[in-house]
Amino acid sequence: MSAAAGGRSRSRHLLEEILLWSGAGLGLLCIAGAVASWVLGVTFLVFQSGSMSPAHEPGALGLARSVPASELRVGDVVSVPRGEGGRVTHRVVAVERLGEEALLTLQGDTNPLPDAATHRVTRADRVVLSIPLLGRATAHAQGPAGLVAVGGLVAALAWLAWRPRVPPSGRELHPIDRASVRTVLVVGLVCGSAGGALAAWAVTPTDAAWTDSAVAVSDPVAAATLASPVALSTTQNCTGGVGSVTLRWGGVTPTPGPPLSSYQYTIEVWDRGTNQQLGSTQVLAHGGAAGSTQSVSYSSSLLGNLFGLNLIGTQNLQFRIRSRLTGSSWVGATTVPINVRAVTVLATTFTCNA
Amino acid sequence: MTARAEGRCSRLRRLVASVRLRAALGLGTLLGFGAVGTSAYWLDADTVAPGTVTSGVLHLDLGGQVRVKPETFAWTSLTATAIYPGASLAAVLPVANNATGGLALDYRVAGRATSSSGTVTDPGLVVTLRRGGTVSGGTCTGGTLLGPSGGTRLTSADQPLAASAQRLASGAADQLCVQVAMAINTPNTVQGTTATVRLTFSATGVRR
Fold it and tell me: Cβ B192–A223 below 8 Å, yes or no?
């Protein structure tokens, strides 16, 4: 044998050994998984998203065991079916016991809020272990490339184990050897494909597990305070006489807030003796510049018409003037009062500030 | 070591190293592959092809912040010193999807108002949202109206402000115009009080 041929043979032997040992290791792992699944009732979970990170990173393969509801505790990571199909695997943050059942509130570790839906269960799959990256490997193995690779590995192993030995005398291969090689190849590929198809069929989609929330809080939104009319001195606020009275007050000077044009005044007439409002309320728009003196004159008949007043005998009246924001229920805090005595014999005589 | 023990040991080594045994174990891959594959549940999201694993963290950020958790954004541009019935103020709030892993998201908006006064239960604030809207003299114009056309009157409890979830692609940002008006029938007792408006954005990740 030449030196080159010897080297080729050595490297080929090395390759075979690597293939055999890694294949055996992988196979043992798979057999262990299958046995655990069947004998111990272990459920395998593939974490596809990061809502349970870093305890269970995306791409990890999780092992879960079914436990009765009574064994579930806050802090357990459980996998439960969702109402609309699929499953969710999150941490238990609250358990409410309902006899044999438990009402679970779940939350993803990276989610700021618990899941909206609660789960009423008698049993749940509790995650006991997760192996980083293995889920991702499983995922890849079930892709088209993975199927080809697994099929290829199986076929290669079968070939190594049951390949026809080259007869030392250079005789033809026994036909049965060739047939068995072909059989093993075909069986390997068919099994690989079937396994992959089964896996694809059994995949259950579940709800999106990622959530996030953010809050925007405004600075204070301050409501305005309405300006109020200003009382004038008793020499200015009122002019009486026979048959009519004129009332005057200082108009509003708007503070920050509604413009002057949005202001109006309400005028009420009260009986000072009974402290009751007489008739209805009149409304007057602001006139002139901010702070300018506002005035209104009422004849005795106008008082009767506008307010529904029935002037008779001697009446101690009080006119109450208030500011108001047009169209709203907002009124100024301060009321301007003007006292007027009305004496009616034939005509009405108004006496101011009396 | 005795010769017999040595012999047992080497027999065991030969057995373990046997090509056929190792190959047979390797064929166990098929068994396990089927078992694990068929019983594995794929956690998460939509109608995903098996085999896609997405690592990502969802980040919905407000006002130009980047990947803040937990996030409370002090929105200083939404403020008023003297609002009154019939008046309004408006400001644009950037809402960004800064998720890692190329995640799109759906967000919903809820809002509430908290009065500084213990006696005011209805501060009279009405919120209107316009996605992509712009501010024009204290109101929002343009864009897409998200809630009812008359807006939503805030109470002390959160209530939804947008009729449906808003999809935001990975890396995209919305300019959300928020208009806060004071209702014309706001009680007189609201005068001189202050309130803060709190908007809560809840995002759910979506795959493609």
Answer: yes
